[in-house]
């Protein structure tokens, strides 16, 4: 990474992704790709499993957008258009992507709100509250390993950039945008019977 603050290196912040009349698919994917990069700052290959999961699901959403652009302008439109189809690759991929984003959002928000709690504890609690119920016995140990590989706060936060006050403000806005999108899509999945995020 260059000396640039993390939020200056991503192409789109969740804060700037339009959510009305639905969540803009292309801009959401851009923001999600930025989120994957935050795990590079964790500096541990154990997070490869998290990154690869997120990246694979972003690719499924992008593939649907490329093959059905007119029906996929928003995430909601994409899911509605795919509903009658037998295979719902993008809908399922997005559901898993949203779970991964929720996990990340909970972990970072907990860390921000609990300045004495190490990232490993914040992310362990985030995992319990988001992904763990959907993971089988083979996947849980991989994620557990990743949680234990979290860097210390004193190492991670300076990597986001300086000055810290400015970076914390950006992080807060980014997380608020992310949380809004996850909550909006959770509600959409639930009300439309598309699955559970």
From TrEMBL:
<dbReference type="GO" id="GO:0005829">
    <property type="term" value="C:cytosol"/>
</dbReference>
<dbReference type="InterPro" id="IPR014830">
    <property type="entry name" value="Glycolipid_transfer_prot_dom"/>
</dbReference>
<dbReference type="GO" id="GO:1902388">
    <property type="term" value="F:ceramide 1-phosphate transfer activity"/>
</dbReference>
<feature type="domain" description="Glycolipid transfer protein">
    <location>
        <begin position="23"/>
        <end position="162"/>
    </location>
</feature>
<keyword id="KW-0813">Transport</keyword>
<dbReference type="Pfam" id="PF08718">
    <property type="entry name" value="GLTP"/>
</dbReference>
<dbReference type="GO" id="GO:0016020">
    <property type="term" value="C:membrane"/>
</dbReference>
<protein>
    <recommendedName>
        <fullName>Glycolipid transfer protein domain-containing protein</fullName>
    </recommendedName>
</protein>
<dbReference type="InterPro" id="IPR036497">
    <property type="entry name" value="GLTP_sf"/>
</dbReference>
<dbReference type="GO" id="GO:1902387">
    <property type="term" value="F:ceramide 1-phosphate binding"/>
</dbReference>
């Amino acid at each position: 990474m260059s000396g640039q603050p993390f939020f200056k290196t991503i192409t789109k912040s969740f804060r700037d992704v339009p959510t009305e009349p639905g969540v803009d698919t292309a801009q959401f994917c851009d923001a999600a790709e930025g989120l994957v990069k935050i795990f590079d700052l964790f500096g541990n290959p154990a997070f490869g499993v998290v990154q690869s999961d997120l990246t694979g699901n972003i690719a499924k959403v992008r593939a649907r957008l490329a093959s059905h652009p007119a029906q996929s302008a928003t995430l909601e439109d994409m899911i509605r258009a795919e509903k009658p189809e037998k295979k719902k690759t993008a809908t399922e991929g997005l559901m898993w992507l949203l779970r991964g984003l929720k996990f990340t959002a909970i972990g970072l928000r907990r860390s921000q709100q609990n300045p004495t709690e190490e990232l490993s504890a914040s992310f362990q609690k985030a995992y319990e509250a988001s992904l763990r119920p959907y993971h089988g016995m083979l996947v849980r140990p991989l994620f557990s390993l990743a949680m234990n590989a979290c860097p210390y706060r004193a190492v991670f936060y300076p990597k986001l950039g300086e000055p810290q006050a400015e970076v914390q403000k950006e992080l807060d806005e980014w997380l608020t945008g992310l949380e809004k999108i996850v909550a909006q899509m959770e509600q959409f999945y639930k009300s439309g019977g598309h699955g559970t995020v």
